[in-house]
Sequence to fold (228 residues):
Amino acid sequence: MTWIDDLKDLLFPRYCKVCGRRLMKSERHLCLYCLLELPRTHYERNPNNQLMQHFMEWPEVVHATAYLYYHKEGRYSSLIHHLKYYDHPEVGTYLGRLAATELKASGFFEGIDLIVPVPLSKKKFRKRGYNQCDYIAHGISQVIGVDVHTHCIGRTIDTDTQTRKGRTERWKNTEGIFCIVDDDALRGKHILLIDDVATTGATLHACISTLLTVQDIRISVFALSKAE
Fold:
C-alpha cells in the first residue's frame, strides 16, 4: 500500500464486518480469523447436495452449489446484511471473487458461457439502488473470465419480500415473476445463474423454469449462501 493508503487507513480505519475487529492493511472486509472460519458448505464435493436436490426434475440443470451456510441469527449473517441492507455492494464482489477462487479447482465453472444474476424487482432496486446478485456475479467473473449478462431475463411482477414468508407462501409468491428479455443471448448456452441466499429454492426454481423455455440451454446454479 502507498503512503496515501496508510493515511486513509489511519484516518478512516476499516473493521471486520463479522467480529468488528480493526482490519490490518492486507485484510479486506474480513479479518483473517473470520475468513478462515467462514461457514463453507463444500457442496461442490457432493453433486447431490441440498441445493441441487431442488432441481433434480430438470436434466438441463448441470450443477448447483452454495458457498456458505446462512443462519439468520448466526454471526456471519452480518455479511448478507451488509451486502443487502447496509449499502455495501462491494461485499458481494469480494465474496464472489473469494468463492470462485476456492471453487475453481473443483471444475464447477467448466463449460460456462455466460453469467446471469437473478434480477431484482424494480421496487427493491429503486429502494436499494443496486442488485446485490450483480456484484456477486462480477466477483465470480473476475476470477473465471466469463462475461456477466444482466439483461437476459427480467421481472414481470414486483413481489413482496420473502423474508417473513413460510415455505408455501414463498412458492406462491414467485409464480410467473420472470420473463425472457433476450432469447438470442441465451440460446444454446450453458449459463451460470447467480443468487444471494437460497432458502426454499422458490425464486431459483421460478427463474430456471422461465430460462428453460429457451431452446438448447443448460444451467448451473451458484448461491452465495444456503439458509439452514
Summary: The chain has a mean pLDDT of 91. The chain has two domains: 1-37, 39-227. Strands lie at 61-70, 114-117, 153-155, 178-180, 190-198, 218-227. The radius of gyration is 18 Å.
